Amino acid sequence: MNWLQELQNELKSSVELIDNKIEKTSSILFNSDSNSSVFFENSDSILDTCNKLIGLLESKKSELKIIHHLACSGGSLITKCFSAMPNVFILSEVHPHSYRHLKKDMATFLPSDISTLAKQAGFRESYELAKKIFRLSIKEASSRVTDRGGVLILRDHSRSDFCVGDSYTDKSTVTELLLDDFDIIPLVTACNPIDCYLSLQSNYWLHFEPQTFNEYCLRFLNFLAQFKKNQIVKYESFTRSSDKVMKKMCNLLEVQYDESYKLIFDQFKVTGDSGRVGVKIEARPRREISDELKNEINKSKNFAYLC
Fold it and tell me: Domains of the chain by range and CATH?
C-alpha cells in the first residue's frame, strides 16, 4: 500500500500549494484586501478547493461601460469616435422606458421590441416587464460580446430620465437597473448648456415643463450630481484637442485607443445624430441668441451655479 500512501501525500501537498497561492491570486482577480486563506482553510481536498475557487470566480460581477450625456451635447459624435476603436460595439441610446417615438393614435411596427409591444397591447405589468427584459438583454449582449473578445459600451438615453416631462429622476435608470449584475464604469460628456438649449429649441425638443432655460439648467445640475468630477469630460475640450481628450476618455472607460479613429468615425451610424454633422471634429458656431433668451441666461441662478 506504499503507492496509496504516496498518492495521498502528493494530493495533500497539492492542496497546500493551492492554499498558499490562493490569497495572492484572489487579490489580483478581485482587488480584495480580505484574507482569502480563511475562506479556504477548511478545504480538505483539491476538488473542494477548486469548487470554492470556481464559486468565487463566478460571484465576481462583470464590468460594464456606460456613456451618459444629455441631448444636443455632442454625444453622437463622441459615440461614433468610440465606435471606431478596436473591437468596440455600442448600443446607442438605451433605456427601458422611452416611448416618445410612439404614435398616439396608432400602434407602431416594432416586431422585435417585446417591451413596447406589451405596452401597446395594454399589458398591465408592461413597465416591470420592460425592466426585466432590458436587464436580461444587456446581460446576454455583454456575455456574447465579451466571450468573443469584444468590448460592449452602452450609450444611456439620459434625456429620458432628466429632460422629459414635469419631473425627473435623481439617478440613471439604466445604471440602477444594472448595478446588481455589473460593476459600472461611467463616462459623462457635457456641453455648454446655452448651446444645448439652443439646439433643443431648434429641434423642438423642449419636452419638459416649464420650458425655461433656468429649468433646463436645474435638470442639467441634477444630471451631473450623480457623477464624480473626474468622470466628466467637456465637449468643448474634445473639439479643441480631440486626440488628447479621446485618449483620456478611452482610459476612463478602459478601452484600447487607436489614433486612426478620425479617419473612419463618420462611417459609423448611431441614433440621435441630429446636430450639424460633418467629417471634421471641430466646434460649430453658436446659434443666434434672442434678446429674450439673453435675459433668461443673465437671470438664471442655476446657470450661474453651473458655470
Answer: 2-59 (no CATH), 62-306 (3.40.50)
